[in-house]
Amino acid sequence: MTESTPPTNDNSGVRERASHAADKARDGAYKAREGASKAYADSKQRAKEASRRAGEGLEGNPLSVLVGGVAVGLLAGSLIPRTEREKDVLGPLGQRLAEGASAAFVAARDAGKEELESLAPDKNQAKSKASNAFSHVVNAATKAGKSAASGPKAG
Length: 155
Known about the structure:
Blueprint: H1 11-60, H2 62-79, H3 84-119, H4 123-150
C-alpha cells in the first residue's frame, strides 16, 4: 500500500495572496483615476487659457484676423476646382471684380503719392529755410565775436 498524504487545507495563504492582489489592484485603479483626473483638469485649464489668449488676440488685432480669414478663403477657393457652370456664371463677375480691384489699387496708390508729396517740403522752400537758418547762425557768431572783442579786459 502506498502511503498517501492527506491534502492540506492552506486556504489562509491563498486568501492572503488574493487580498494582497486585490489591494494592489485597488491602489492601481485609484492612482490611475487620480492621474486621469489630474490630466483632465490640466488639459481643461490649458484649453481655457488658449481660448482666452485667442480671444485677446482677436480683440487686440481684428484687422489681422480679417486679413487672415480672407487669405484662407482665397487659398481654399484656389484649391477647389471650378466647374463649367461656375465658369459660365461667375466668369464675367470675376472679370469685373478684377478690373474694379485693379482700379482701386491704382486710385489708392495715386492718393498715397499725393499725400506723401503734400507732406514733403518743396525743394526751394527747404533751401530757403536752410539758408535762413545758416545766416542766423553766422549773425549770432559774429555778434558773439564782437561782444567778446569789445568786452572788458581782465589783466
